[in-house]
């Protein structure tokens, strides 16, 4: 038997979710109480994998080894033998209660492994394949926890999650390039717009870069709107949470679109922005 109780394990995951700044709410008080703990467990797992892929001074081999170990640990958890770590103890309970497919966790790990070695994407289709593994599984897990996994709901969720992943790329252009040497803008579209890597290196916000990024924003906005009916389809507080997340993504896109002089700065949501997000989400019910 694990030394950590299930209650303590969930609490540790909730603490992790609350201690990280996110533009989009994670396991917030708006969620139905019965969903907060399992959502926090999934978030804590993804946060740990993301840290292995991106944070600290590990070399690439060490990062891949750590992520491989996480895959083995999630497989042990599914086999009924979770490691004595709060994340896996909480996940074991979540997985059992909500019958979450193991493939969703495998996809997440595969995406984080890809982050270690892949720094460029040839075209938008290749980038969307990455989003399918890095972002969409999280939304699908939430639908399993909520108990609504029909094909339409899953499709809406995929659109929202992919859009949010793209928005995160756009607001982290400089950080991704400076700290991780990554560019998540399709290489063929950069070439067509006559944007080079020097734009990222020297933080050049000229007409070519503006044209390129406006195209990215418009496409992400269409994708976000394509998934927006999910917020109305889901009932109660979870539906409100989804509408808040969608409105938050839309607000970040608006702020990005207004940044004509500096396309590389990360927008921050103010109190006024949050009032707009709440008003938009409530009105959309």
Outline the structure in words:
This protein has 285 residues and is an all-alpha fold. It folds into two domains: 1-117, Farnesyl Diphosphate Synthase, CATH 1.10.600.10; 119-285, Farnesyl Diphosphate Synthase (Orthogonal Bundle), CATH 1.10.600. It is built from 15 helices and no strands. Helix 5 (102-117) packs antiparallel against helix 7 and helix 14 packs across helix 15 (271-283). It starts with 5 loop residues before the first helix and ends with a helix. 41% of the residues are buried. Mean pLDDT is 92; it is low at 23-27.
Largest sheet: none
Number of alpha- plus pi-helical segments: 15
Instruction: Sketch the topology as an H/E string, one letter per element.
Output: HHHHHHHHHHHHHHH
Rg calc:
19 Å
* Uncertain regions spanning at least 5 consecutive residues: 23-27
Topology of this structure?
Blueprint lengths: L5 H14 L13 H22 L5 H19 L7 H13 L3 H16 L6 H11 L1 H11 L4 H21 L1 H8 L6 H7 L3 H5 L5 H21 L1 H5 L2 H23 L12 H13 L2
Helix pairs in contact: 1-2, 1-4, 2-3, 2-4, 2-5, 2-7, 3-4, 3-5, 5-6, 5-7, 6-8, 7-8, 8-12, 8-14, 12-14, 14-15
Structure summarized in a few sentences:
With 285 residues, this protein is mostly helical. Helix content is 73%, strand content 0%.
State the main characteristics.
single chain, 285 residues, mainly alpha, Farnesyl Diphosphate Synthase, 2 domains, globular
